[in-house]
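[Q] Does anyone have a clean structure-token version of this?
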Amino acid sequence: MKRDIYSELQTWRASNRRKPLLLQGARQTGKTYILKRFGREAYRSVVYCNFEEHSELDAFFQRDLDPNRILTELGIYYDHKIRPTEDLIIFDEIQVSNRALNSLKYFAEERNDIHIVAAGSLLGLKLSTPGSFPVGKVNFRYLYPMTFLEFLQAVGDDRYRGLIEGITGIEPLSDAFHTHLIDRLRQYYFTGGMPEAVRHFAETNDAPGTREIQNEIIRSYQLDFAKHASSTDIPKLTAIWESIPRHLARENKKFIFSAVKKGARAREYDSALAWLRDAGLILWVDAAENDRLPLKHYADAVGFKVYVRNAKT
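[A] Here you go.
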């Protein structure tokens, strides 16, 4: 399926300020798919390194972070001589290897002729820890679930995307267009914008199957709690995650910790909320006292709402 971020990757490739690229995004938003497609179509070949699947890759970064030695050893490992500007190196699930993440600094400084993109589902957590990030040495992009315009393309309604993008003023659409787009918007809300769910719905129009895919994605998020969070935070993460629909159903009401668990206090759950935010799973939205700029100056850190993060903001 087509994703708007593809054109951003093409711009990155041609940019005179290109550095190693760090692609962030929640699990299942399609990071690996779009990077592999970009590599196949824009380069002669792809060197794909998945640090979660192949833990031995981390060993190439332990002795030192000399990019020339790392390139030589990766070339031997993959039986492929890596060519500057012609090959794309993908470091997938890079959050597993802190040394590989830090190596991006040296690739930027010493071998910026090598095109590298790194991706990870929980990079926000890794980057929030001290000493884990090559400051100023990478470019950033973020991959969100599909937008409504991307959804229209996926279901074969490219012309309606063009119609929407061509609107230059506030004017009503004809009833025929309006009715069709409202129906598509309802379908988009139902799929949630996750690429696998959208693809299945677009190909089969199978609502129960789409719901099953959504439940599998939610389950994979919960398994990440057990895999990556501290044991003391896991019950809190699960409780907050499962409480979000209840909170959102309470119209114009702020997030209340006692609604997560009776007797709960903010100081007990703050770290769990921060984990979910850094993992890219939720939006933590502060209330503002008024609508004057800058809004952050008028933010009320106590009065906030939590949303599942499913769109670009």
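[Q] Thanks! Anything notable?
[A] The CA atoms of residues 23 and 141 lie 5 Å apart.
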